[in-house]
C-alpha cells in the first residue's frame, strides 16, 4: 500500500512538472528555466508560471465538473 501511495505521488509530481513547463513555454519563459533553472528565476517569473498553472487547473476542474453534471444524452 505504501508503494502505491509513493507511486501516485510521483505521478502527480510528474504531471504538475509537465504543466509547469508547458505554461512556462506558453509564457516564453522556458528558455529561462533551461538557462538559469527555477532557483535563479525572478519572483515575478516564477509567480507568472504558478499563477497560470492555477488558472489552468481551475479551468480543468470546472470543465470536469460541468461534464459530470451535463448528461451525454437526454433519456426522455
Observed structural traits:
76 residues; mainly alpha; 3 helices
Helix count from the secondary structure assignment: 3
Backbone structural class = mainly alpha
Largest sheet: none
Order of helices and strands: HHH
Q: How would the global form be characterised?
A: flat
Query: Using only CA atoms, what is the Rg?
Result: 17 Å
Provide the low-confidence segments as ranges: none
Q: How helix-rich are the residues, as a percent range? A: over 70%
Report the strand count.
0
What is the average per-residue confidence, as pLDDT, rounded to a whole number? 87
Q: Which range does the strand content fall in?
A: under 5%
Task: Kindly give the count of domains.
Answer: 1
Give an account of the 3D structure.
With 76 residues, the chain is mostly helical. It has one domain (2-66). It has three helices and no strands.
Amino acid at each position: 500500500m505504501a508503494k502505491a501511495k509513493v507511486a501516485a505521488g510521483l505521478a502527480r509530481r510528474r504531471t504538475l512538472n509537465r504543466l509547469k513547463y508547458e505554461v512556462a513555454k506558453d509564457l516564453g519563459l522556458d528558455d529561462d528555466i533551461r538557462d538559469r533553472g527555477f532557483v535563479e528565476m525572478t519572483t515575478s517569473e516564477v509567480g507568472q508560471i504558478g499563477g497560470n498553472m492555477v488558472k489552468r487547473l481551475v479551468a480543468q476542474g470546472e470543465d470536469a465538473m460541468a461534464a459530470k453534471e451535463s448528461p451525454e444524452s437526454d433519456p426522455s
